[in-house]
Design goal:
- By secondary structure, this protein is α+β, with helices and mostly antiparallel strands.
- 18% of the residues lie in helices and 42% in strands.
- Strands 1, 2, 3, 4, 5, 6 and 7 form a 7-stranded mixed β-sheet that branches.
- A hairpin with a 7-residue loop joins strand 2 (43-55) and strand 3 (63-76).
- The longest helix has 13 residues, at 82-94.
């Protein structure tokens, strides 16, 4: 299994979310989008968190990798929470427990999807979605 394949499989699945706003990928310079009228626009920030990569057999030859795919839904704060909460639910809906995502050498199994509490600041409301994954 390749970390790049794990990332690719998870990001490809995220891209299937209907109505997904612009994506701010890790390691890529990003400026929050602004509409033609000067209003702030929504975006999402996906981050791969690898929890562990450990052998799971007696000989140490088979390795299990698991972690969390953290996706922050970032929406302008002047619009309430309905849109950002709807996007969080739409993301959870494509990462159903037991779903298998295949890319290259990786077969990524989705273990769970949870929405976390909203965070507010002057410009944005952020709703994180956590996706648990595992690869054997």
């Amino acid at each position: 299994m390749s970390d790049l394949d794990i990332r690719g499989a998870l990001q490809a699945r995220l891209a299937t979310v209907v109505g997904l706003p612009e994506i701010a990928y890790e390691g890529v310079q990003f400026e929050p989008p602004i509409g033609t009228d000067g209003d702030l626009l929504p975006y999402v920030v996906p981050v791969i968190v690898v929890g562990s990569e450990r052998p799971f057999d007696v000989l140490g030859e088979a390795v299990s990798s698991q972690g969390t795919f953290e996706i922050s839904c970032v929406y302008p704060s002047n619009e309430g929470t309905a849109a950002v909460e709807g996007m969080a639910e739409a993301i959870k809906a494509v990462f159903v427990n037991g779903t298998r995502l295949v890319l290259g050498s990786a077969v990524v199994k989705i273990r769970w999807a949870e929405r976390r509490q909203a965070f507010f600041d002057a410009d944005y409301v952020r709703v994180p979605v956590s996706i648990g994954w595992r690869v054997n």
